[in-house]
Amino acid sequence: MPPQPLYDLSHIDFSRPIFDIEAIRRVNPQRNQMEQLTAIVHVDTEHHGLVGYKDITENEFWVAGHMPGFPLMPGVIMCECAAQLASFYAQKYKMLGGDFVGFGGMDEIRFRGPIFPNCRLILMARMKELRANRRAVFDFQGLVDDRMAFSGTMIGVPIHRDQRLEK
Q1: Adjacency order of strands within the sheet including 119-131
Q2: Is residue 121 within 8 Å of 79, Cβ to Cβ?
Q3: How far apart are CA 64 and CA 135, in angstroms?
Q4: Do residues 153 and 137 lie in contact, with contact meaning Cβ atoms separated by under 8 Å?
Q5: Cα–Cα distance between 59 and 35 in angstroms, integer?
Q6: Residue 18: pLDDT band with limits 50, 70, 90
Q7: How large is the average pLDDT for residues 65-81?
Q8: Which residue is catalytic, options 47, 48, 66, 160?
Q9: Could you give the CA distance from residue 82 to residue 109 in angstroms, rounded to a whole number?
Q10: Parallel, antiparallel, or unpaired for β 135-144 and 39-44?
Q11: Average pLDDT over residues 33-37
Q12: Residue 5 in contact with residue 143, Cβ under 8 Å?
């Protein structure tokens, strides 16, 4: 049985984003094929959560090769969408420090239904634990047409430009 949604979507106006793609780009570093977030429509600073979405088109980089003739969104890309949402919150509200937020781990991931092109993937994330400058733990969910498509927990960690490994 899927978990209860993190937010009641009936109270959220999806026609008026709080942060559009240009505002997201000022916070998140991903570009081109790796941009997996279209807009953010709700921010809850009291409970450290937010709601956004990814409009999935037939032009996504994975469409031609991930199940040709039956384009199925890869689970890792679903998780990346949710991670970019959580990362936006952590960076915008300076929860972790660092130049970027990276994956520290994922737990209890459940894929509950396929996601195909030409849909809107609603994304929700809520921080449930913070160790300042060390890690943030977020619950996340993805819904399509009011149906829970995936859910789980992720750990975000700060990454500093000077941590790059030298050869």
Answers
A1: 39-44, 49-56, 119-131, 135-144, 147-159, 100-111
A2: no
A3: 36
A4: yes
A5: 13
A6: very high
A7: 96
A8: 66
A9: 12
A10: unpaired
A11: 97
A12: yes
**Residue 81: pLDDT band by 50, 70, 90 thresholds?**
very high
The answer to whether 117 and 66 have CB atoms below 8 angstroms apart is no
Distance separating alpha carbons of residues 11 and 160, to the nearest angstrom: 37
66 catalytic residue (yes or no): yes
The superfamily in CATH containing domain 14-163 is Hotdog Thioesterase (3.10.129.10)
**Which residues touch 166 (CB under 8 Å, ≥6 apart)?**
none
Position 152 scores a pLDDT of 98
Structural tokens at position 78: 């679903």
| Residue 158 and residue 97 in contact, taking contact as beta carbons nearer than 8 Å | yes
DSSP H or E stretch at residue 56: strand 49-56
Please give the Cα distance from 123 to 142 (Å, whole number): 5
Q: 145: buried, middle or exposed (CB in 10 Å: 19+, 13-18, 0-12)? A: exposed
| Contact (CB, 8 A) for 140 and 110 | no
CA distance 148 to 2: 7
* pTM for the whole structure: 0.95
